[in-house]
């Protein structure tokens, strides 16, 4: 993307397929920026293994943790690559320590750098005791030579490597019993005689079990250390056969794939990226989408190479394919060869379930787990340049939403404005930029609305009667409800019914009552924001015969609103987890600024020469924070945000907010 080239960051994940030493590798590059968490989530969903790229001078950063947790959730074996070893301030030791401390992982050092920062000129392979030196005249890391370490030429380095190798062998033996038996049996006297292959197999097993993480280093800019990294990927990360997916046994070799990404191409229409779990895909093949319950035909099949694509005639399991012609498939959909193959798989799953006497509805679970889409945290309004362009804007937003499910577009019923909900400032900015470049629309972004929530502090009762005559029908409903706060956090109101309410009445009108309660809780009494953490009890309900359900619903809704108004009300505001990395000299202005933003500092850690401030800040106060922080610290500080929870506002801030909303200040 043009935006990626300008900013020098990854925004969208890109897929490349290539061959390395007889292995076919499907590589997906995902963004590291917090605004594009969804891209990482949906790619991890279909990968078998991952390489976590860390900056050797910064070690584990805020966002590394987020991505690491996502990989833990999907149980993905991974390797760490310490990049930028030639950058000033790069420290191999520090970076490894941060993996141990922050990620709580066991690093297995498979390489040692020769020199650091400016002096970084090669690396040592600990497993095979060889050194790799780059050609000093050439700036490209492709020119390198591999030599065994000899006592004559590098006595110091050999000693250090032997110690590292012995430590590695002990570490792996602790984690892998099969290897431990081998070491204790044949090679207990002399670890040097242990063949490299045996150690490599053991590291492979340990990586798959996710009990430890191999660590390699290099500098990607100059291609330094990339070849050994690719060797490590083929050697230690799992192949598709080694990942055990429970649902595959039901499909018995029939097609089963997961669509994990949709891109819009001006000429070809939607391009769907899919991971094939079993079976093969060919062009002109009709496939059945279980989620959408529809059948579509693939017109062409492509192999992804970043922005170039190569047309192919078929693709087998374990690969990542790009398909043209699927109009209705969205991110997270499960695709199979036909409806009957899905039903056959469901039957197999059911039979298996009966054998094991467990009622897990694996039949319904034929759907591969989709992709969890994070909640948006950043909101703004978007306006087309003129009313005539509104349909074009809606089309552009529809295409962008299909590509990026973490972008939500809402119509505000009160103001009639189109609201963009995204993952952050940068996310919305990129969307705005793309609408301009790809769809040729100059749009205007308006100020952002913070999604407040409301709750009540004590219980309140209310009764309400609705008496209407429409035509010759009389509609009469009388309701008494009680609203009370609950301890557990729940977005939807908890609905309870008193003993006195008859079953017959409930049978007819329960749906209407619940609709009424839900619609009342969508707009709270203070700001018109959703009400959370409340329980609504229906104490009495009398309905005149012939009253329509809409009237019941309307009366219940009005009554619940009355009860909520009576109670003591409280506004809840979204709190962001904030982590600011800042140089010592700038610490006090940053802390001062956070105090003004009603921030709550939890702790201040030290990371090399930097301070890391960890705390909570209300979302309302974080608008434009990135710009403010850069100004305060001359562009040296970085920060990461994620939505933490909703927290009650103190009365003073709440009054200020309400006055501002009602136009009094």
TrEMBL record:
Annotated SUPFAM superfamilies: EF-G C-terminal domain-like, P-loop containing nucleoside triphosphate hydrolases, Ribosomal protein S5 domain 2-like, Translation proteins
UniProt key word Transferase: no
Domain of life of the organism encoding this protein: Eukaryota
Pfam families xrefs: EF-G_D2, EFG_C, EFG_III, EFG_IV, GTP_EFTU
Subcellular location per the Swiss-Prot or TrEMBL entry: Mitochondrion
Record key words, sorted: GTP-binding, Hydrolase, Mitochondrion, Nucleotide-binding, Protein biosynthesis
Biological process (GO), any one: ribosome disassembly
Domain Tr-type G, first and last residues per copy: 1-241
One GO cellular component term: mitochondrial matrix
Residues that, per the record, bind GTP: 29-33, 83-86
GO function terms (MF aspect): GTP binding; GTPase activity
Similarity annotation: Belongs to the TRAFAC class translation factor GTPase superfamily. Classic translation factor GTPase family. EF-G/EF-2 subfamily.
Role according to the record: Mitochondrial GTPase that mediates the disassembly of ribosomes from messenger RNA at the termination of mitochondrial protein biosynthesis. Acts in collaboration with MRRF. GTP hydrolysis follows the ribosome disassembly and probably occurs on the ribosome large subunit. Not involved in the GTP-dependent ribosomal translocation step during translation elongation.
Protein name listed in UniProt: Ribosome-releasing factor 2, mitochondrial
Gene responsible for this protein: GFM2
């Amino acid at each position: 993307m043009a935006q990626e080239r300008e900013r020098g960051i990854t925004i969208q994940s890109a897929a490349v397929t290539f061959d390395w030493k007889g292995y076919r590798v499907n590589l997906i590059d995902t963004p590291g920026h917090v605004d594009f968490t969804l891209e990482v989530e949906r790619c991890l969903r279909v990968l078998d293994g991952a390489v976590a790229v860390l900056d050797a001078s910064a070690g584990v950063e805020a966002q590394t943790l987020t991505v690491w947790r996502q990989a833990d959730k999907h149980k993905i074996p991974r390797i760490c690559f310490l990049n930028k070893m030639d950058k000033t301030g790069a420290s191999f030791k520090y970076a490894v320590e941060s993996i141990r401390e922050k990620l709580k992982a066991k690093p297995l050092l498979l390489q040692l750098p020769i020199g650091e920062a400016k002096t970084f000129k090669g690396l040592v392979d600990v497993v095979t005791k060889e050194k790799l030196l780059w050609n000093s005249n050439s700036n490209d890391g492709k020119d390198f030579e591999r030599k065994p370490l000899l006592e004559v030429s590098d006595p110091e380095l050999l000693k250090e490597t032997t110690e590292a190798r012995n430590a590695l062998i002990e570490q792996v033996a602790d984690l892998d019993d099969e290897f431990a038996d081998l070491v204790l049996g044949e090679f207990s006297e002399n670890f040097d005689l242990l063949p490299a292959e045996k150690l490599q197999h053991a590291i492979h097993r340990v990586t798959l079990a996710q009990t430890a993480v191999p660590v390699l280093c290099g500098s990607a800019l100059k291609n330094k250390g990339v070849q050994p990294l690719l060797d490590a990927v083929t050697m230690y990360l799992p192949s598709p056969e080694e990942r055990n997916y429970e649902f595959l046994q039901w499909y018995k070799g029939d097609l089963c794939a997961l669509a994990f990404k949709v891109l819009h191409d001006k000429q070809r229409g939607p391009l769907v990226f899919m991971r094939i779990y079993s079976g093969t895909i060919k062009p002109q093949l009709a496939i059945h989408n279980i989620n959408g319950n529809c059948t579509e035909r693939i017109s062409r099949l492509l192999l992804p190479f970043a922005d170039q694509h190569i047309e192919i005639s078929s693709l087998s399991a374990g690969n990542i394919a790009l398909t043209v012609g699927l109009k209705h498939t969205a991110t997270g959909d499960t695709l199979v060869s036909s409806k009957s193959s899905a039903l056959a798989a469901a039957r197999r799953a059911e039979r298996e379930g009966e054998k094991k006497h467990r009622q897990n509805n694996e039949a319904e679970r034929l759907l591969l787990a989709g992709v969890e889409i994070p909640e948006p945290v950043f909101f703004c309004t978007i306006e087309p340049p003129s009313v005539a362009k509104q349909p074009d804007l809606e089309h552009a937003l529809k295409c962008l939403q299909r590509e990026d499910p973490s972008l939500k577009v809402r119509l505000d019923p009160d103001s009639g404005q189109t609201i963009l909900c995204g993952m952050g400032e940068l996310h919305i900015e990129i969307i705005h930029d793309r609408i301009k470049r790809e769809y040729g629309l100059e749009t205007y972004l308006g100020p952002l609305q913070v999604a407040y929530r409301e709750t009540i502090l004590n219980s309140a009762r209310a009764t309400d009667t609705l008496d209407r005559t429409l035509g010759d029908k009389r509609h009469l409903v009388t309701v008494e409800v009680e609203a009370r706060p609950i301890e557990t956090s729940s977005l939807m109101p908890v609905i309870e019914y008193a003993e006195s309410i008859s079953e017959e009445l409930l049978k007819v009108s329960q749906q209407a009552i619940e609709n009424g309660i839900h619609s009342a809780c969508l707009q709270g009494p203070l700001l018109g924001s959703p009400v959370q953490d409340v329980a609504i009890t229906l104490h009495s309900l009398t309905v005149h015969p012939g009253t329509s359900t809409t009237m019941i619903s309307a009366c219940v809704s009005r009554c619940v609103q009355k009860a909520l108004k009576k109670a003591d009300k409280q506004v809840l505001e979204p709190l962001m987890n904030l982590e600011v990395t800042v140089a010592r000299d700038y610490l006090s202005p940053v802390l001062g600024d956070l105090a003004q933003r009603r921030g709550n500092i939890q702790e201040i850690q030290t990371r090399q020469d930097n301070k890391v401030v960890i705390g909570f800040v209300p979302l309302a106060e974080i608008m434009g924070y990135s710009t403010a922080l850069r100004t305060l610290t001359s562009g040296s500080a970085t920060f990461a945000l994620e939505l933490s929870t909703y927290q009650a506002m103190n009365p003073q801030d709440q009054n200020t907010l309400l006055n501002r909303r009602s136009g009094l200040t």
